[in-house]
Amino acid sequence: ISEQNVEWTSLVQRQITEMNTLRRQHTKEQCEALRLLLEETQKIQTKELVERQTKEKKELELSQVRQNIEDSKRLGSEKNIRNKSDLDRRVRELKSNNTKKFVEERKRQTLKHERDRDNLIKAHESQKTILLADIDKVCFFML
User: Fold this and answer.
1) Could you read off the pLDDT of 2-18 as tens digits, one per residue?
2) Which residue ranges make up each domain of the chain?
């Protein structure tokens, strides 16, 4: 009976050790999978941000071109322009005003895009820091 007791204890001890080893290995794999998932998700978010910003930039440029064309048409159809020099002066004024306005719009958009990009980078760094800290805690408690 004593021999069976020793065998049984040894068997139970070995099983507990194997289970703990498997549990640690599984936890490490899950932590690595979470880290990779976070990195992949952040890459996707960055890509989506760049695509959205590119689309917004194209839309702004297109609307500015439309605005320029509409203003030119409106100038051409005005009845109170008496001669060619008046028309040329008005066209120059219009182009100058539009150029200033368009440059300001593009600057604002660029600043907004940079701010959005910086905020996303900060959020990603924060998420990664939190995840790595949590992973370290889990690994510490598994030892």
Assistant:
1) 889 999 999 999 999 99
2) 2-142
